[in-house]
Amino acid sequence: MSEMAMRMVLPDEAATVRLAEDIAIKLRVGDVVALHGDLGAGKTTFARALIRAVAGDPALEVPSPTFTIVQTYAARLPIAHFDLYRLGSADELEEIGFDEAVSESVVLVEWPERAEGRLPADRLDIVLDLYEDGRVASLSGGGDWAKRLDRTEALRRFLDRVGWLDSERRHLQGDASSRTYERIRAPDGPSAILMDAPEQNPGWVVRDGRSYDAVAHRATSIRPFVAVGEALRAIGLAAPAILAADLPAGMLLLEDLGSVGLLDDGAPIFERYALATEVLAHIHAAPRPDRLPLPDGDIHRVPPFDRDAVAVEVELMPRWYAPLVDRPLPPEAEAAFDHVWTELFSVFDSAEKSWLLRDFHSPNLLWLEGRNGLQRMGILDYQDAMIGPSAYDVASLGQDVRVDIDPGFESALKAHYVATRLANGPFDAVGFAGAYAISGAQRATKIMGGFARLASSAGKPQYLRHIPRIKGYLRRCLEHPVLSELRLWYEKYLPLED
């Protein structure tokens, strides 16, 4: 087995279940968890708790695979539960589809010693032994399991300090960064959201020795999220309240705003999207500061959406998307691309500016049934906020990356936003239309390149399913006269065919 990482006393079955839930949060496809222990040591209890936690169903039937050898589950992560007790020899692993399961799912193995050393070295080993009235678990792991286990233990210590030690934990969501969210629930009590956002590495170097995150002004710690969230709450908007925080460790306990979004069976609901534009109009109606206080007395400086940030994002297109579609660009094409965006930035930068929340679209917005007015719109995921053209977030909403927004719906949203702004004072609707087109084109260009990078270098091809929709949005933007040069560039070098 691999190097020792952790030893835990589990005084009762509830503690065993809690450990299984903690491990379930950190699992990903390709992980192998090997359960060791004598009969009655608690392997089945642990396995059932882990599978139920991943499935998000505490009542899920989890039969023992003693006779079937393998039992599979289509959960948040696909799981293959193997019991190798009846395995004749390790050579039979191929016959029962073990290697295929490892490549496609999380694999949970009881009696792993029957595999005779054929398990991957980067697995997690859990040894369960009887101890007094309960049991003791010894955990060790290859690969990055030591790091994952340390983080798991740190999160439990945080929950203990803030009075949520015995809470049930369920994975809620993650994103392309190392940030993850969990819904936690106290026994017979309320729920909250646990945000796990360890400080991130700065990423790859792109220019002048600076990383992509530094140039694009992307948050690498939890501090911007805290500062911007409190600023949004201060102007009457529904960002989640912070119930507890460990800023150095990157851990937050947040108000649970629920899970009702802006969609009905995958389709956008206009009433909810329209309210989201009213939230933006409220933000944009008054000057907003670029220096925001933090609870520890420090100040977060909201960065500008400057020329370098715009450029480094659109450069993802020629660098990643063009090779993906087998359209490598000659040097003159890249030079022309840079020139077009340099010219567009001048127009973009002259537009009305405000807080720019960046990913203001359906995955980060919630419908709060029990509230009124602007408080009905819950806002999430604003740690990358900048000072930039206010039209950007309207374009982010009207050209929702993960939802099909038809042209009529988008036009009605823009009209609703403009009408809301005009009702509250003077507003340059013509300038807004141009800034909206540039914002949408910049965002679509960035996302197509970014999703291509995730597919090509991070092994995440699922992001490519959004590309056709994003190309459609980009074609809409290119219809605006302000983007005529960019439209000609695409027609010449990288046609946006269906």
TrEMBL record:
Single annotated GO MF: transferase activity
Key words of the record: ATP-binding, Cytoplasm, Magnesium, Metal-binding, Nucleotide-binding, Transferase, tRNA processing
Domain Aminoglycoside phosphotransferase: 172-418
Main subcellular location: cytoplasm
Cellular compartments annotated: Cytoplasm
InterPro entries: Aminoglycoside_PTrfase (IPR002575), Bifunc_ATPase/PTrfase (IPR012180), Kinase-like_dom_sf (IPR011009), P-loop_NTPase (IPR027417), T6A_TsaE (IPR003442)
Family assignment from sequence similarity: Belongs to the TsaE family.
Protein name (database record): tRNA threonylcarbamoyladenosine biosynthesis protein TsaE
Organism: Kaistia dalseonensis
